[in-house]
Amino acid sequence: MKPDIVFVHGAWVNSHCWKGFRQRYEALGYTCHAPDWPFDDRPVAELKASPAEELAGVGIAEIVEHYAAFIEGLSAPPIIIGHSFGGLFTQLLLARGLGVAGVAIHSAPPAGVLPSLSAIKASLGVVTTWAHWRKVIVMSKSDWAWCFTHQLSEEEQLATYDEFVVPTPGRPYAQAAFSPALVTVDFAKADRAPLLLVAGTADRTVTSDMNEANFKKYDGSKATIEFKLYDGRSHWTLGEPGWEQVADDVIEWAQAAL
């Protein structure tokens, strides 16, 4: 019997970002789950129009516990697939012994992995917002274009912004920078599920050298840890042209790792 799949989204989008992957995997016979971050479980248009006030208080611990509780409520351990912050959360969940395999796609960096200059630039829209740690922030169209979709046409950038982008709490960004205990992964843990780290050479938000540095942190681990680099893929690898190949490679790797 195939394990279920649990998708973990990152900042600025909700679970709708997984629509392509989810449809593709369900066609293969997988049962897929894509829980939203707390207070993100509404259609994108509703979230844009009236984000929940409680969202401002949602941080890394709340999100990780939210997914841990969901996974523990399943009848069997799933494959966990996360993107961006969701990739970091996937690593944290695997370190807690959850999941039979994990894939971290363009993962935000855990403690010990320094951001590149490009990644710092990509975060400026958040960190330059006063008191961002207690606010809900809306990513601008220009930031979406530069950080996520710079390889799409202007028309496609605007269309994806309208379809996918939602208000996001600034709290996880502040915590990632100033509360390293919340993003510390036990890299030496031997009895962890297999993990694949996926990166793209055109990613400006989490550059491929950051993902490679993340991978190298697992040196010496007895667990199965692998790294795959895609040439020319941006941070919006879940939706830009060619995403199908990434999706297929991910599930093929997971099937082989089990």
Key terms for this structure?
six-stranded parallel beta sheet, 8 strands, 258 residues, alpha/beta, Rossmann fold, two-stranded antiparallel sheet, 10 helices
Structural write-up:
- There is one protein chain.
- The protein is an alpha/beta fold.
- The chain has one domain (5-257): Rossmann fold (3-Layer(aba) Sandwich), CATH 3.40.50.
- The protein has 10 helices and 8 strands.
- It has helices at 19-27, 44-49, 60-72, 85-95, 117-127, 141-147, 154-164, 171-178, 208-216, 243-257, and strands spanning 5-8, 32-33, 79-83, 101-105, 136-137, 168-169, 195-200, 225-230.
- The strands form 2 sheets. The chain has a 6-stranded parallel β-sheet, sandwiched between helices.
- α1 links the parallel β1 (5-8) and β2.
- The longest helix is centred in the last third of the chain and has 15 residues, at 243-257.
Compose a concise summary of this entry.
This protein is an alpha/beta fold.
Helix content: 25-40%
Number of domains: 1
Classify the fold: give the CATH topology: Rossmann fold
Which CATH top level class fits? Alpha Beta
Strand order of the main beta sheet, please?
A: 2-1-3-4-7-8
Look at the structure and name the CATH superfamily.
Alpha/Beta hydrolase fold, catalytic domain
Uncertain spans = none
Mean pLDDT reading: 97
CATH architecture: 3-Layer(aba) Sandwich
Tally the helices. 10
The termini sit apart by 12 Å
